[in-house]
Amino acid sequence: MLAQFLTPHKRDFSSLSQQEILALAISSEEDDGRIYRSYADWLRHDFPDSAAMFDEMASEEDEHRRWLIDLHREKFGERIPLIRREHVRGFYDRKPDWLVKPKGVDAVRRQAAEMEQQACRFYAEAARRAEDASIRKLLGDLARAEAGHIGTAMHSEQANVPATVKEAEAQAERKQFVLTYVQPGLAGLMDGSVSTLAPIFATAFATQDTWTTFLVGLAASLGAGISMGFTEAAHDDGVISGRGSPLHRGLASGIMTAIGGLGHALPYLIPDFWTATALAFIVVFVELWAIAFIQNHYMETPWGKAIFQVVLGGALVFAVGVLIGGG
Q: Would you say 193 and 289 are in contact if contact means Cβ atoms under 8 Å apart?
């Protein structure tokens, strides 16, 4: 119910008919084929082998699309409903080429492997929901085909070597941990730490009353935590995106949001204003550096970029609060 309120223009995947699932699969295969051809054209001069691989993957996406269209024609006729991945709540999205290509050929291969993983999850879930035997069979076959492409996309021809398998499993497990806990938790910590700076320090310098400041910080932190938690849980059920349980993601986001705000609100339980404010300054410094560390360690953001984004952004919000409260 809340998800429908937050994203009223999107459909739940569970509400799609079998015809709409086929139409969604057709449009997704068309998009992926175009993306792979774009990668191939970009890589052709410097990486001809990788370009050939992406040409082959694009041709296979075209073949999948033809299978799907033939089945749609057989079951539902010539008119294919217009439904795309952006019309479905929680459905996986695709990063634009201009965000992936500058990161290099390895990033392109990783993106392709992620695309295949997402497509595999989609077909597996769609096959599970299909009631028609022929539709279910085709979707199951496509799920297996997409699963077979993942190793190809990463150039992992030795996928059956035990050491390689263990490494791949460890990487998949770490990625799932990042998607389910670290990513929403980091978003919550950033929102709680940064967004509450202005109201807390504006109240502190305007009133110089530590108890009032604490109450404002408590209300802002808990309110933001509840809001972020519900939003994270509601906007994606995790079935197709593979981001994991919405409950786990919502709790991670909500709890870390509250912690981020409470960190610099709790010092104002100290009756002396300047002692509390000095301690709050120290806490803010630690929070911002913790966010930068998490971005660098888990999200692979370069230190310089992480520090610039977090510390500079936090400093600006902090300055706004002090200027408003001090004025």
A: no
Is residue 188 within 8 A of residue 226, CB to CB? The reply is: no
Asked if 178 contacts 298 with a C-beta cutoff of 8 angstroms, the reply is yes
Alpha-carbon span 145 to 64, nearest angstrom:
9
What is the reported pTM?
A: 0.51
pLDDT value at residue 293: 83
List, in order, residues 6 or more apart from 103 with CB less than 8 Å away: none
Using the structure block, give the residue that is written with the tokens 């910590």. 189
Q: Any idea which residue has 């400093």 for tokens? A: 315
Residue the block writes with tokens 């992926």: 32
Cα angle 187-192-195, degrees, rounded to a multiple of 5: 105
Distance CA 313, CA 324 (A): 17
CATH 1.20.1260.10 range(s) for the chain read 10-157
- Please list, in sequence order, all residues whose beta carbon lies within 8 angstroms of the beta carbon of residue 120, skipping any fewer than 6 positions away: 143, 146, 147, 150
Q: Is the CATH code 1.20.1260.10 the one for domain 10-157?
A: yes
Sign of the CA dihedral running 129, 132, 133, 137: negative
What are 28's two structure tokens?
């997704």
CA 12 to chain centre: 18
Task: State mean pLDDT over 232-246.
Answer: 72
- Output the six-digit token pair for 18: 């079998």
Per-residue CA distances from 60 to 41, 93, 144, 311 (Å)? 17, 20, 13, 46
What's the DSSP call for residue 103? G
- pLDDT category, 4, cuts 50, 70, 90? very low
Q: Reduced to 3 DSSP states, what percent helix, strand and coil does the chain have, rounded to the nearest 5?
A: 80, 0, 20
pLDDT at 83: 86
Residue 11's SS3 state is: strand
